[in-house]
Write a structure and sequence with these properties.
This protein is of the alpha+beta class. It has four helices and five strands. The protein is globular and about 45 Å long.
Length: 122
Amino acid sequence: MTMNPNEEPKSIPGIQELTGMPSVEEMREALKVVKDPELMLDIINLGLVYEIKPDAATKTVDVDMTLTSPGCPAGPQILSGVHSTLMQRFPELDDVQVNLVWVPFWNPQMMSEEAKDELGIF
């Protein structure tokens, strides 16, 4: 089959079609549904997710994230929400490992401008 050079291709494969894995940006967007129940803001805009590391070879994802404080009572709920959200949204994943890290220690300056506005932080 030859393609007419004046004809646009029907679709160009994205990262998911090429690797069988969602992109980091797709996963970040999906995690916006996970909210800190005390602040009622999502963990992405709060700046709690530091790094998302997909591994196409093993179909796994490591998420490095933190909480607003070491004693955060909602910690287990938030961590569980990250795992279940990614596993449900992206069934092609075999596993999601959520790593709780404390370096760098979270501070309000890590929030997006949208989150700062929402909380009245200038």
